[in-house]
């Protein structure tokens, strides 16, 4: 990363913190899924979670309608789309946002899906290269998302291929799924990898997934449904952060989650004041 321009490095450092880790909150699901469960009222969902996220990954429509302009949380803007859940082939994506609009929105990075092995592989990879060129022109990092569509696999061989291609084409960091042999995916990718949260899991399983990814070299997570569809989203994002930034075990993180959930339930009117303290982290 030492060869990157100062502005690009500065933006990336707002997302991936000084410990080399990040907890991103993905809320871009609506670009092809529509009103996803938990995001029907995006502003209501995002507002209490935003202070705890290291970065937010929305679409430009959600930024402009549902995110406070006074937030200090960096934005990783989704800039690809054109497909929908009604499509048989989800890989038919193109660029949907200009880099000029990304600059207007003062984003910290832009994100694009790539579909390696799909009928639209070439187009999505060429779109990535175009975005990287524009990112260097404006000093904005690019996150490549290794999308898998409806029929592609998620094993280490495939995901390592996707991540390495993304890095070779210039992506500054990559979002991909966890798999058996995940350490191989990380080892063969020369840029940071953040793990996609995927479908909703029970809270303990989601925390174990987070721990497994971090312990095998991930720079962080980009979770959506496992946070905003949780029984207690504010408690869940803090439990995830405890694993990512404080290296606690899943068992300890789950205890943090349960404790915060109970406090939030009894103090609904004081959600902003309920935060996991260093002392609490050390007790578990």
How would you describe what is shown here?
The chain is of the alpha/beta class and about 280 residues long. It has a single domain, classed as Aldolase class I (TIM Barrel). The chain is built from 13 helices and ten strands. Helix 7 links the parallel strand 7 and strand 8. The longest helix has 18 residues. The model has no long low-confidence stretch (mean pLDDT about 90).
Give a quick set of tags describing it:
alpha/beta; 284 residues; two-stranded antiparallel ribbon
Just give the CATH class. Alpha Beta
Could you give the distance between the termini? 36 Å
Alpha carbon gyration radius? 18 Å
Helix/strand-derived category reads alpha/beta
Beta-strand content: 5-15%
What do we call the CATH homologous superfamily? Aldolase class I
Fraction of residues in helix: 40-55%
Return the CATH topology: TIM Barrel
Topology of helices and strands:
Elements: H1 6-15, E1 22-26, H2 30-33, H3 42-49, E2 55-57, H4 60-66, E3 76-78, E4 80-81, E5 94-95, H5 99-104, E6 109-114, H6 121-138, E7 142-146, H7 156-168, E8 173-176, H8 182-187, E9 193-196, H9 203-215, E10 220-223, H10 225-228, H11 233-246, H12 250-266, H13 278-283
Parallel strand pairs: 1-2, 1-10, 3-6, 6-7, 7-8, 8-9, 9-10
Antiparallel strand pairs: 4-5
Concise account of the structure shown:
This protein is globular.
